[in-house]
Amino acid sequence: MKIKRIAIVGAGTSGWLAANHLGCELSADAEIEITVIESKDVPTIGVGEGTVPYIMKGLKRFGISEAELLNSCDATFKQGVKFVNWLDPIKHGENYYYHSFDDPYPNGFNVTPYWNSYEGSKSFDDIGVQARISELGLSPKMKNSGEYEGELSYAYHFNAAKFANLLASNAQKRFKVKHQFATIEGIKRCNEGNISHLITADGDELAFDFYIDCSGFSAVLIGKGLAVPFESKAKELLVDTALVQPMPLKSDEDINPYTTATAHKAGWIWDIPLTTRRGTGFVYSSKYMSESEALALYAEYLGVNEKDLSPKKLPMAVGYRKEFWCKNCVPLGLAQGFLEPLEATSILLSDFSAELLAKNFPRDSTNIETIAPYFNKVVTYVWERTVDFIKLHYCLSDRTDSDFWLDNQDETFLSAELKERLQKFKLCPPQQSDFFSRFDLFNEKNFLYVLYGMKFETQKTILSDKEIEMSRTILKNNDRLVEQADQHLLKHKDWLMGLKSAMEKSKS
């Protein structure tokens, strides 16, 4: 039977990302109808306000204007993550490092072995230019840069609710995606075990051919309906709670072109700058910290009286589904799984999975048994390696100020793959051949920044005179680029306000 009617249950970021990916891929087939079903009774979580550069690929395919994205979603540029105090403050003092988006291989040449063997006392951030340019508060784009183009790699921070609205508008106008309101409470299954109908709170039954579960943590279809088990990663990743509090942005306050992730004794705090406010969240493990202590530390970080703090509390079930495609249903977003938003993993995994589904969407129900095992294999690999990358930030820390950090350093809870990689990286720096799958969303370039930002030690190597000379030339050139950067790049806030002013003038 040809699959003609597709239901996407849930209208948050993951739901509308799926609608755009599927709409873009399938819109040439006039028989296919995509419907997003939104509940008025279920609010979206909306904490995913940071992205990685991968997001651009989809936005360009969808035909979304970057200027419209920036202006309508309170968006700012993100050039990476600044990790503060992830190393022992007593041993290292106040410390930070950047996981930047720029290429640590200038001109295709890897200067890491030179840095490691000859200048390891210098910060790894000094190899490239982006960390230092981020510290200067500069934009990654010039005033006349084209859409989705810049002098440096970048992603975005945005208001998640407004971003979902932008995706919704685009999907409906460009790809003719339908939208209806209904609260889905259950499913009906046919004799083969597939979902045949959605059951609404009003008792109505809605029939489709294929179902995408974007219903958030409730996982109405994949969890409650199809009973696909949840694979907990609570032993590997210890944080389980987030307190979320938006903060007003003062008119004279700078807008950082990066996310800040500040460690505390039982987790970390995210601080994401938008053009209208700061999105902040206090992530912690309830095993190692009480809620009252978390509130006190959160208020101290924000510089407010604890009595004036009224954060939303989000319990976090960390892990993912044991099956990502079951019968005629695929979960995306929080229904698929959840990891703390340390490296903007939520939107990344939703975007990747939605694109993979769209590119491999079965045109006939008989194709599902062929495609589903491949999809499950790929997405399982992606989740497992992403768990490894998040764990990397914790297991490398030398903080000893709490049992939380000591337990995170216990190698018992590292995957075999991560253990093997870390052993190899003690002998030589990460290289592309260590990440042989194209489904490693976090590869050697990402590992380099975290490993050496956290002072991981790799065996030194002897380099040729030519390699040494080339490395020194590249690093000196980078120093010059940083010194001259403010002659070419505007302050981040000035660039954003300039765009806003230009767009207001064009409308008048």
Strand content: 15-25%
The shape, in one word, is globular
Number of strands: 20
Distance between the termini: 52 Å
Global structural class:
alpha/beta
Order the strands across the largest sheet as they lie in space.
Answer: 5-4-14-15-16-13-17
Mean pLDDT: 95
Instruction: Give the % helix.
Output: 25-40%
Q: How is the biggest beta sheet arranged?
A: 7 strands, mixed
Tally the helices: what do you get?
16
Gyration radius over CA: 23 Å
Which regions are unreliable across 5 or more consecutive residues at pLDDT < 50? Answer: none
Write up this protein.
This protein is of the alpha/beta class. Helix content is 37%, strand content 19%. The chain has helices at 13-26, 55-62, 66-72, 89-92, 112-118, 130-135, 160-175, 220-225, 291-302, 345-359, 368-395, 403-408, 416-425, 444-453, 465-488, 492-507; strands at residues 5-9, 33-38, 76-78, 80-84, 96-100, 155-157, 178-181, 184-189, 195-200, 205-207, 210-213, 230-232, 241-248, 259-264, 267-273, 277-284, 312-315, 319-321, 329-331, 337-338. Strands 5-4-14-15-16-13-17 form a 7-stranded mixed β-sheet. Helix 10 (345-359) runs antiparallel to helix 11. It is globular. This is Tryptophan halogenase.
Brief sketch in words of this structure:
The protein has helices spanning 13-26, 55-62, 66-72, 89-92, 112-118, 130-135, 160-175, 220-225, 291-302, 345-359, 368-395, 403-408, 416-425, 444-453, 465-488, 492-507, and strands at residues 5-9, 33-38, 76-78, 80-84, 96-100, 155-157, 178-181, 184-189, 195-200, 205-207, 210-213, 230-232, 241-248, 259-264, 267-273, 277-284, 312-315, 319-321, 329-331, 337-338. It has 508 residues and is of the alpha/beta class. The longest helix is centred in the last third of the chain and has 28 residues, at 368-395.
